[in-house]
From TrEMBL:
Residues 28-47 bind DNA. Gene3D superfamilies: Homeodomain-like, Tetracycline Repressor, domain 2. Coiled coil: none annotated. It comes from the Bacteria. Keywords: DNA-binding, Transcription, Transcription regulation. InterPro entries: Homeodomain-like_sf, HTH_TetR, MT1864/Rv1816-like_C, Tet_transcr_reg_TetR-rel_C_sf. It comes from Dactylosporangium maewongense. Residues 5-65 form the HTH tetR-type domain. Pfam families: TetR_C_33, TetR_N. This is TetR-like C-terminal domain-containing protein.
Length: 190
């Protein structure tokens, strides 16, 4: 029987908050149960286990992320869209480090991934302004994601120990991506 007041959504949101506070590895069924003052077994009416719980956090994060990206890039194109996209990306990673980490992990294959798909579509949409067609568009999405992820991951881990202003490096990184994207065909012709 379900404990009064607990829902799958409430359990997922508590796990997401815990991920931001303690890191994704700190999200366990026991930790979330302690948050609610219940036994672990009480949560199994709402989640199938740790993998399902973390997958739900990833799906929640994907929806939040897409909801943040959509207005950031709306009505923009080219460099303006790229800067807004990149800043929203970095802002989410900074504000929600545990949720952001969940976005990097694979989700349960049976899960509803429509929110993640929406984020991917927003990324492709933002890059349309650069006139890229397949397979270049997919390669550009991968470059963008790996570059932004690498930067925010290093930043979060304290990996930039040089006295140079990190925000200045961020702006230059995004500007360099823009230059590469507008010269994609010439830069990468075989």
């Amino acid at each position: 029987m379900r404990r009064a007041g607990l829902t799958t959504d409430l359990v997922t949101r508590a796990a997401a908050d815990l991920a931001d506070e303690a890191g994704l590895d700190g999200v366990t069924v026991s930790a979330v149960a302690r948050h609610f003052g219940v036994k672990d077994a009480s949560l199994y009416s709402h989640v199938r286990g740790l993998r399902d719980l973390r997958s739900r956090v990833a799906i929640l994060a994907a929806a939040e992320f897409a909801d943040l990206l959509a207005p950031a890039v709306a009505g923009r194109s080219g460099r303006d869209a790229l800067v807004a996209f990149a800043d929203a990306y970095r802002g989410y990673a900074r504000a929600h480090p545990g949720r952001y980490a969940a976005l990097q992990a694979p989700v349960d294959p049976a899960a509803d991934v429509s929110a993640a798909r929406r984020g991917i579509e927003l990324t492709y949409g933002m890059l349309r302004g650069y006139g890229l067609e397949e397979p270049d568009a997919t390669d550009a999405v991968r470059l963008l994601r790996s570059t932004l992820h690498g930067f925010v991951d290093l930043e979060a881990r304290g990996g930039f120990n040089d006295p140079r202003d990190v925000d200045a490096s961020w702006r230059r990184t995004v500007a360099a991506l823009h230059v590469l994207l507008i010269h994609w065909r010439e830069a990468l012709s075989e």
